[in-house]
Amino acid sequence: MPLDLDARFPREHLAFWPSPIHPLKRLSDRLGVEVWAKRDDIASGLAFGGNKIRKLEWLAADALRQGCDTLVSIGNIQSNHTRQVAAVAARLGMRCRLVQEEWTKWDDPAYGTVGNILLSRLMGAETLLEGEGYSTAVKETWTRALDQVRREGGKPYAIPAGASDHPLGGLGYAHFADELALQEKDQGFVFDTVITATCTGSTQGGMVAGFRAQDTGRRLIGIDTACDAAMTRKAVTKIARATAELIGVTRAIRDEDVVIDDRFAGPDYGLPDDATIAAIRTAARLEGMLTDPVYEGKSMAGLIAMAENGEFAKGARVLYVHLGGAPVLSAYHNAFAG
Ligand code: PLP
Question: CA 132, CA 217: separation in Å to the nearest integer?
Fold first, then answer.
């Protein structure tokens, strides 16, 4: 049964849906497994897009309904999420204040000036470089930024890291399940396995809720990128259950519905290992498809390793969900030296 979320929750359209699906033919030949990509990275004209645009459609509608005038969010210095919040604010004619914490110790002076943060500033967002350390907890730096907007007479709309720990955070990727089901109907088959990068949790959490309303028996595998699989699991499970309740999925979300693979997270959040860099090169050179060292390069490394280890059944069709992130590449230029 389709969830039909458009009819039930206000949504601001910010992208060109459905995001395209296409086969990765040369990668499939290399791996001996049929791999397709669903391209959430190229579905929006807003500042190079990405998975946050899909989520923010529902939060933006809520912000407008409440009469807010400033979007306030938080992320890493090189956050894709905050760049997308800046783009949405620009599109809606709102102000934008972003707390950019140091979640990664990346030793390059360009890290604080190029890539995502450059784009956020270009779009008029105010960027506050304070705080450090990745966590899905509510940060004091963010609540202070919200208070500051209020003191200045503005009406802030609070968007947590990754637009995840928010009552509407899971709607975008629950809706993704309906979108994918229609595309599968057109194609005439269902994907056996869906691979997604996972971190703050509402991408995978929304999918878990949306897929639970379907009857496909597909596997959804989240590749942890936070380098803290227990924290990621907790976040995904919480969001999956809250979203399922919000949208009226009657089947319970079981612990086994949340599959987190912790083998490809690298040494830490934001730090690639050799397999991440090799996977980024493979996707670029075989498919002209750009992935990044923080998220999508890790999920691509996971997909490649699983294929090489024979972890996909014979004849399986695997869907790689591309969630964006390539605008960060220039900040990691020295990872590709040599
Ligand atoms: N991929 C990219 C490119 C991202 O920017 C993010 C954001 O954190 C993720 C994957 C992970 O998504 P989520 O934070 O919803 O788990």
Answer: 40
Query: Which residues have CB under 8 Å from 39's CB, separation 6+?
Result: 19, 20, 21, 22, 322
Any alpha helices (H) in 262-334, and if so which ranges? Answer: 274-287, 296-308
122 and 225 in a single domain? The answer is no
Task: Indicate if 187 and 325 belong to the same structural domain.
Answer: yes
Q: Is 323 touching ligand 1 by the criterion CB < 6 Å?
A: yes
Distance 151 CA to ligand 1 centre (A): 32
Active site residue 19: no
**Residue where a domain terminates, one of 162, 178, 199:** 162
The string of pLDDT tens digits covering residues 33-51 is: 999 999 999 999 999 999 9
For a substitution probing ligand 1, which of 120, 164, 203, 291 has the most ligand atoms within 8 Å of its CB?
203
**Where residue 91 sits, what CATH number does that domain have?**
3.40.50.1100
pTM: 0.98
Looking at the predicted structure, is the pLDDT value of residue 138 above 80? no
Same domain, 95 and 18: no
Continuous segment of H or E residues that includes residue 74? strand 70-76
Shortest-distance atom of ligand 1 to CA 203:
15
